[in-house]
């Protein structure tokens, strides 16, 4: 896909048109140079704006372990842009500041616009996570609605301003302030319950095991369920659409790359292009749990069909049914995957246990060949996957193991 065919770029250009029409039609200022200029700027700047916004959100979470802080950073960045855009429209006489009194003046209009935007985007992405609509289409509709209603409110339609204020407060609570509540809830001491440790475990390493033990001890958990990602839902969607492809399968891993149909402006691999096959990650998880002596505390779940239906939402729903009157606690890190999990935990009323990422141990480093980051037994598994090719067999932990379709299979128990 060329840059001109980018879905992301089309959304940006469409947003510029929506912004222009939202102000030009009701005010009839079709030739206003300020309006034309800010609309063009929006169309051209939106891709960069989004990249910076995502970066600020991720880096703030990585450094603070606070979802509220990360969303607040995004809110500040969006508000700076909205202040710039609305300020120019005021200077160009597209907006009369006397019409902004009900919404708190220019600053109030800026804050409400940013709150509505974040809340609508949160709902749009949540719906796409549940399989309701396309992520890009949902976000485009959310942003378009925000531009239109904020424009009508800024121009001075009183009834719209009332709706705008209510939306700003409600969506601000949904998009930002719920995170403040769950941040505080997560650090309040609590004893007992059932833990969840969800993620790719690509592969499981020493840090995983260390924070798992700390999680069990500090929350005094009766049990912890671990469920690895099968194929990340976004990867599966993109594979089905032909936007990414598996270019190589070797040493128990699959290697992804963008296809010719992929959008050049979208990062489809925020957690990496290399993924150990789900069965291999499951094998290593079982090995690590047994090696750590946690078999009496940890249950590893693996339900590809259930995961395919609704991802980790479905897994949490099943676990909650097993423990209907028990508090669920969710362990997560401060990487991109941790941010996604935090939103899922917030939606499903799982008490978060956030571990600030420290040190240089990571799945990415291990996949790149770094040594000493996995436990001895897991290291043996990784070496086995590197040494044995498809169709070959060998001995692993006293058992005959066969490599079938890039996956480990125990031949005899």
Number of helices: 13
Report the end-to-end length measured between terminal Cα atoms.
49 Å
Average residue pLDDT:
91
Q: Percent of residues in beta strands?
A: 5-15%
Major sheet summary line = 5 strands, parallel
Number of strands: 11
Main sheet: strand order: 6-2-1-7-8
Descriptive overview:
Strands 6-2-1-7-8 form a five-stranded parallel beta sheet, with helices on both faces. Strands 3-4-5 form a three-stranded antiparallel beta sheet. It starts with 6 loop residues before the first helix and ends with a strand. The protein contains 13 helices and eleven strands. 36% of the residues are buried. The protein has helices at residues 7-27, 33-64, 67-91, 105-129, 135-155, 158-187, 206-219, 233-241, 278-291, 304-322, 336-347, 363-367, 376-387; strands at 194-199, 223-228, 244-250, 253-258, 274-276, 298-300, 328-332, 351-354, 393-396, 399-404, 407-410.
Topology:
Elements: H1 7-27, H2 33-64, H3 67-91, H4 105-129, H5 135-155, H6 158-187, E1 194-199, H7 206-219, E2 223-228, H8 233-241, E3 244-250, E4 253-258, E5 274-276, H9 278-291, E6 298-300, H10 304-322, E7 328-332, H11 336-347, E8 351-354, H12 363-367, H13 376-387, E9 393-396, E10 399-404, E11 407-410
Parallel strand pairs: 1-2, 1-7, 2-6, 7-8
Antiparallel strand pairs: 3-4, 4-5, 9-10, 10-11
Helix pairs in contact: 1-2, 1-5, 2-3, 3-4, 3-6, 4-5, 4-6, 5-6, 9-13
